[in-house]
Amino acid sequence: MSREVVLARPHPFIRKPMTELLSKLGFTPVTGGNSTKPAGVIVSSSVTSEAGSFADVLKMVKQTWKDVPLVVATLLKPDMAIKSLGKELETVFPGKKIGFPSEGQKADILIVRPDDLKVLQTERVIQGFFR
Fold first, then answer.
1. To which H or E segment does residue 87 belong?
2. Is the pLDDT of residue 131 over 90?
3. Backbone angles phi, psi at 65, to 5 degrees
């Protein structure tokens, strides 16, 4: 089983704190599409990225790693994240349940904020979420 986690749409939020968390949990963060069967994929919802638009990267993730756990990293508060990102996520991944680490419920797509990375519960959720 791969311990790689693909940073499919890198952003400073992902590159530093998320990389540190992943490394602490025993995962190897990688960028690009070279991983054949990663443990998970992280996509930043930032407005701009050299990797392309949020929607385009989501489509690429679905095509390349269809059943791999997906985390969306965002700076948005939970209610705004659902309003802003929920429609695009539903369009690309219809029927998938979207959740937050603080909810403690099973989700198919996890939305993570910078504050979440400071909470021990988030570490446990991410550890169990990735395969």
1. helix 78-92
2. no
3. -130, 65
Nearest to 69 by CA among 103, 21, 112, 102: 112
pTM, 2 dp:
0.90
| Cβ–Cβ < 8 Å for 91, 131 | no
Query: Which two tokens mark 122?
Result: 């988030």
Q: Which long-range contacts (CB under 8 A, 24 or more apart) does 128-131 make?
A: 129/40, 129/69, 129/71, 130/5, 130/27, 130/39, 130/40, 130/69, 131/1, 131/39, 131/40, 131/68, 131/69
Helix (H) / strand (E) containing 62: helix 54-64
Among residues of the chain, what percentage have pLDDT more than 70?
92
